[in-house]
Write a structure and sequence with these properties.
Blueprint: E1 4-9, E2 37-40, H1 43-51, E3 54-56
Antiparallel strand pairs: 1-2, 1-3
Length: 71
């Protein structure tokens, strides 16, 4: 079983956090979302981590949604 990890692109300029995220391509050619995503830790993603293009992050917490019940 392959290991999975939540990653997101690093900031474009670490000294200016509002400067946006680096555009990082996924293995299929699409851009990695700025919010990040969970990926299998393949050699491709290990290289991106080693090069500093992406960082390991905590996944966003899912908010519990309450459904209305009819009374």
């Amino acid at each position: 079983m392959s290991q999975t990890v939540f990653i997101k692109p690093r900031n474009r300029n670490p000294n200016k956090p509002g400067d946006g995220a680096l555009k990082v391509r996924q293995e299929d050619g699409r851009h990695l979302p700025e919010a990040g995503r969970e990926v299998s830790l393949t050699s491709y993603w290990r290289r991106r981590l080693r090069d500093g293009d992406v960082v390991v992050a905590k996944p966003p917490q899912k908010t519990a949604t309450k459904t209305k019940t009819e009374e």
